[in-house]
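How it folds
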Amino acid sequence: MASFTLRPHDRSEFDSLIGGIASQFPGARIEAAHNDTWASYRVDVSCEDPRASALRDWLNGHHADCPRT
């Protein structure tokens, strides 16, 4: 299982993360929160095996500079 909390830098990256994960990993669980006034963005995502390694690879390839925990 892969589980991440991502902190996108801006609304564009926030939207890109959600759209990309939803289309590439339809079985992933996504919870997202944003506050445009404070420029605060958070995306929590978890994905069960066997797609977990593919999610890690996709994030590294498309959003490598996005802070995550």
User: Anything to note?
Assistant: The radius of gyration is 11 Å. The longest strand covers residues 40-47. The chain has a mean pLDDT of 95.
